[in-house]
Amino acid sequence: MTVKHTIFAALALLAGVILTSATAARDQDVPRPIPPKPGESLQKPSEGSIRVKVQVVNAPVAVRDAKSNVILDLKREDFQISDNKEKQTIESFDLAGEPLSTVLVLETSSRVGPLLPALRRAAIIFTQTVVGPSGNAAVIGYDQTVQDLQPFTTNQDAIEKAISSLKVGDSSARLSDAMADAVAQLRGQPEGRRRVIILVGESRDPYSTSNFAEVLRQALRANVVVYSVALSTTAAVARAEERQGGPLPMTPPGTFAKPPYPGVAQTPTSEQQWGGNMDMGAAAEMVVRAVGAQIVTRPLEIASAATGGLFQPTLGDRSIENALAAIGGDLNTQYILSYEPTKSGKPGYHEIRITVNRKGAKVRTRPGYYLEAK
User: Fold this and answer.
1) Residue 240, Ramachandran bin (φ over 0: left; ψ between -120 and 50: alpha; else beta)
2) Mean pLDDT to the nearest integer, 340-355
3) Nearest to residue 57, comparing CAs of 279, 225, 300, 299?
4) What is the predicted pLDDT for the residue at 226?
5) pLDDT, tens digit, for every residue of 79-127?
6) CA dihedral defined by 60, 65, 71, 74, rounded to 10 degrees?
7) Parallel, antiparallel, or unpaired: how do β-strands 311-313 and 348-356 relate?
8) I want to staple 101 with a disulfide (CB 3.0 to 4.6 A). Which of 72, 189, 254, 352 is the partner?
9) φ, ψ (nearest 5 deg) of residue 333
10) pTM above 0.85, yes or no
């Protein structure tokens, strides 16, 4: 080999070493983008900056005046929002414009069996007032098991058929397990859609294996809003007796055929006591903060309060339809605010506070969300 060839070979080898070293250094020093989970986004970097993952928070906001009339003429600049007392910039603002992805979660246990005909009749209310022409929906039923009765579809006939085909199950009811299934399904929906769960059942959850507090935190992370319709076992029993011509009681006076609500003394007025006064916003925050705790007291109300939805109690056949109609009306009159919170990496509970520049206005939104440590 000539001296000239030797020099060329050495230069080529040196260039290869430099290129390899630069590539390795680049791979080690520059973090690669992390694919975002549903409900999260990657902050758009400026030239030469490092990409970081931030939590995108959606806050559905219902605003009413002193007479409980819906206020629909507010603008972006009328809203102020803070996250852990830090003022935030509203990135997007809309009035119920994004299409809905809704999971209808229905209890089918024998405890509410007599009310299932009313639920079946309410199917068309659900498809017309909640799903609408641009939405899609899935249907889940639960008793001792959780059944996926209808996957996500825009076919309203298929949705109504799934609801109309409900069958009475056993006496168990796994609410948190069904809710966990609904959250998982909603995570697969596009980010451009509003994610909603409508729970219809008893406000009790003694049989689930899923942790209610953890399921609720997962719902908050996925920007899911939970609406709930509480079915009354008193109404179910009365309806059953009405159909059967008022049969004799199955148990002696002063005893009860059905298990009590957890932690509540079983009396003839226990259901009324169950609906007593409680600061549901504070209760919801306590549950979301209670890592590892299993909460079974008033789960429907807590789930709705924690996510910014509505809780609707019922006492009769028609009230189930009215409750679904009220939920549909609320979903169609919400303001949707989105923001990327400052100091978003701070783990733990983040408190959301939203106010509007309108005298006497009452604001309902999610009180906060939970961010886990990385």
Assistant:
1) alpha
2) 84
3) 225
4) 97
5) 999 999 999 999 999 998 789 999 999 999 999 999 999 999 999 999 9
6) -80
7) unpaired
8) 189
9) -130, 20
10) no
Q: Which residue ranges make up each domain of the chain? A: 40-95+342-371, 100-246+279-332
Which residues are registered as beta bridge partners of 40? 55
User: Do residues 334 and 365 touch, judged by C-beta distance below 8 A?
Assistant: no
Three-state DSSP class for residue 274:
helix
Rounded CA-CA distance 111/170 in Å is 8
Higher pLDDT, 271 or 179: 179
- Distance between CA atoms of residues 363 and 355, nearest Å: 7
Three-state DSSP class for 94?
strand
CA dist., res. 304 & res. 307, Å (int) = 5
**E strands, the chain, in order:** 40-42, 53-55, 57-64, 79-83, 86-87, 92-95, 100-107, 136-142, 146-153, 194-201, 224-230, 311-313, 335-339, 348-356, 362-364, 368-371
Instruction: Kindly list the distances between the CA atom of residue 299 and the CA atoms of 107, 174, 252, 336, in Å, as whole numbers in the listed order.
Output: 14, 12, 31, 25
Where does 100-246+279-332 sit in CATH, by number? 3.40.50.410
- For the residues of 18-73, what is the DSSP string, one character each? HHHHHHHHHHHHSPPPPPPPTTEEEPPPPTTPPP-EEE-EEEEEEEE-TTSPBP--
CA gap 54, 40 in Å, rounded: 7
Quick check: 319 pLDDT over 60? Answer: yes
- Closest of 112, 147, 149, 104 to residue 129, by C-alpha: 104
Q: What is the pLDDT of residues 154-208, one digit of tens each?
A: 999 999 999 999 999 999 999 999 999 999 999 999 988 999 999 999 999 989 9
Written as six digits, the tokens of 97 are: 């414009």
CA neighbor of 323 nearest in space, from 155, 177, 136, 106: 106
Tokens read off for 203:
């406000």
Which residue type is seen at 316?
Answer: G
Contact between 337 and 79 (Cβ < 8 Å):
yes
The 3-state DSSP class for residue 78 equals helix
Pairing mode, if any, of strands 53-55 and 136-142?
A: unpaired
CA distance 374 to 366: 23
Given a cut of 60, is residue 359 above it in pLDDT?
yes
